[in-house]
Amino acid sequence: MSSEKSARRTLARRCAHAAIGTGVALAGMAVVAPVAHADHVINGCTIVHNPSPTNFTNCPGANLSGQDLSRQNLKYANLTNANLFGANLSQANLTSANLFGADLTGANMDRANLTNATLADADLTGANLSRANLTSANLNGATLLAANLTKANLTGANLQAATLINANLTDTKTDNANLYLAVLTDNLVN
């Protein structure tokens, strides 16, 4: 074997080992890198990519008005008193999130998962909660004027002293929901 061929093979092996050591695989001429998911920041609020009970999005009072948070994993998030006016939270995972006192006026929460979420004293005026899962959610004292709750699941939800005026409750599931002192007038119910 010529020394030139041997040198090329040695160089090729070193490049392959270096590439594998850095997490990059070479296949022919294509370079494939591992997909990285990282936290990202929206208006100063760090959205935690893979939240846990001890590591979650923590943005009380954040201004996320009009932001696209659709399909985001906001499980356990602390968004107390946050401004989410007109935000898109469709299909977002807000399981066990704290949205106490948040402004969700006109927010799109279609098909959002709000299981065990706290929405006490939140303003959901004109919000779209169609097909949202609000199982065991706390909406104590929440305002839901003209909110769309079509096909929403409110099983076991606490709506004590909530205001639901001109809300669309068509095909809404309310089994075992607490409606004590809730204001329910001029609603569309099917």
TrEMBL record:
SUPFAM superfamilies: Pentapeptide repeat-like
Keyword Iron on entry: no
Keywords in alphabetical order: Signal
Residues spanning the signal sequence: 1-38
Domain of life: Bacteria
A Pfam family it matches: Pentapeptide
PANTHER family according to UniProt: BTB_POZ DOMAIN-CONTAINING PROTEIN KCTD9
Name of the protein described by the UniProt record: Pentapeptide repeat-containing protein
